[in-house]
Design brief:
17 helices
Length: 449
């Protein structure tokens, strides 16, 4: 069993941020590769309809991951604050609750998804050309929902105790398994989208076994033992308070993507495939920024729990500077490599033409999108449920979804394409205002004490 108190309290801010964030960023890079792998190998079938089907089904997969974040991000925030308050027994109860909660919810979601498959296919906008492929992919993904939720949850739970490297290794293991199996199952065995789904689930199973073995071998300061399972004493509430807004953010992103796809379907299946590929390409920018900010969340939570505002602000400001620099460099790379990035997935002339336009549009907010994720994870790290919920609902609910309809009506396809960067900038402003208010409130509380 190990502790990370010195890292949270005494290490220099750049060292603490790097120690926590670099493995998380690598984990997110692994997630990028993980998500790109299916689309890449499906693209090698040279069938745009299969690519479109996977793009349509991806939001449902992301909802499963979002439900894992309910326990993962909610649990990580609660654990880091409990450790900052020197309440290790509470941290044990939280981690055990998250273990069995994620598995139990996963089983429920699997049953509901399989039974409601036809309704789901209609909801995501599958056309008569893509519905068969989408059904094959989603049926397998739905059956594997418990492994998706557990592995997603515990990748975050480990970060809550400062074990970012181990979280990275679990993600890396799952991705390697997926990438090895993808060409075998998709191309070698000719299973197409079914092979992609099977490879994804087997990769998640491998990650689950790694995380379980980490606890069984006594490497963690946390617990997944049944005897430590608790729902009372505010444990379920503390996880849900941050986990629900965090999960809701990802769920709303998925629903927003479904609505985006439904808007694009009006212009044909090709724009759907192109946007799917463009979003996959843009994941390099978005997930690396998320990785940086998710990585520092335990630092925020620990120092908020211990009342160390000075260090909390140092972490916030340093991470903000790093995120903008990184965002600018990633944007430059994406603009230069936009055509190549699209062609990596599928070299269909019409898809490439649409995809290039979409990649460029998505880069308009890329230099500063990290500020939004920094605000989100700072609010979650501080355990502020209501502000976290407000920012979540604003970004994907109150801003992005209405913009899709408004800009589609005003500008047609171009309006749909440019809705995301417009929503990002508005959300960044909201996030900054909320964080500034919370920082002032913390300062006021310190003066009263």
């Amino acid at each position: 069993m190990k502790t990370n108190t010195d890292l949270f309290e005494k290490a220099s801010v750049p060292k603490a941020v790097a120690t926590m964030a670099v493995p998380t960023m690598i984990s997110m890079l692994v997630v990028v590769i993980y998500n790109m792998a299916d689309t890449f190998f499906i693209g090698q079938t040279k069938d745009p309809l299969q690519v479109a089907a996977v793009s349509l089904a991806t939001p449902v997969f992301m909802i499963f991951m979002a439900l894992g974040h309910l326990f993962g991000i909610g649990g990580s925030s609660a654990i880091s604050r409990a450790l900052g308050e020197r309440r290790k027994d509470r941290a044990w109860h939280i981690s055990s609750f998250c273990c069995y909660g994620s598995l139990g919810l996963g089983v429920m979601v699997a049953v509901i998804s399989v039974l409601g498959m036809e309704q789901i296919l209609h909801l995501i906008g599958a056309s008569e050309n893509t519905i068969g492929f989408a059904r094959q992919y989603l049926t397998i993904i739905s059956i594997g929902a418990p492994t998706i939720m557990f592995s997603t949850a515990f990748a975050n739970i480990l970060r809550g105790e400062g074990a970012s490297r181990e979280s990275m290794v679990g993600n890396l293991l799952g991705t390697i398994v997926n990438i090895i199996l993808d060409p075998v199952m998709i191309l070698g065995l000719g299973w197409g989208v079914s092979g992609a789904a099977l490879a994804t689930i087997i990769g998640n199973i491998a990650a689950c076994f790694f995380y379980i073995s980490y606890y069984v071998r006594g490497k963690s300061m946390l617990s997944i033992h049944v005897k430590d399972f608790r729902m009372g004493e505010g444990i379920a509430a503390s996880v849900a308070a941050i986990g629900i807004p965090a999960s809701l953010n990802n769920i709303l992103m998925s629903f927003a993507n479904i609505i985006l796809n439904q808007a694009l379907v009006g212009y044909g299946d090709t724009p759907v495939a192109a946007m799917g590929v463009a979003l996959k390409s843009n994941m390099l920018v978005v997930l690396l920024q998320i990785g940086l900010c998710v990585g520092i969340q335990p630092l925020i939570g620990y120092n908020y729990g211990s009342g160390n505002k000075k260090r909390l602000m140092q972490v916030f400001k340093f991470t903000g500077v790093v995120s903008v620099i990184m965002g600018m460099l990633l944007t430059l790379f994406m603009i230069i490599a936009r055509k190549t990035m699209i062609q990596v997935f599928i070299n269909d002339a019409e898809v490439v033409s649409y995809g290039i336009r979409m990649v460029v549009a998505l880069q308009l907010s890329a230099p500063f999108i990290g500020i939004l994720f920094l605000c989100i994870n700072t609010i979650q790290g501080m355990g502020k449920a209501l502000p976290s919920l407000v920012l979540t609902v604003c970004r994907q609910g109150l801003i992005f979804i209405p913009l899709i309809f408004i800009l589609n009506a005003m500008l047609g396809l171009d309006g749909v394409i440019y809705a995301q960067p417009a929503a990002d900038y508005l959300s960044i402003l909201v996030g900054i205002m909320i964080c500034m208010h919370l920082f002032r409130s913390m300062e006021h509380r310190e003066r009263e004490n």
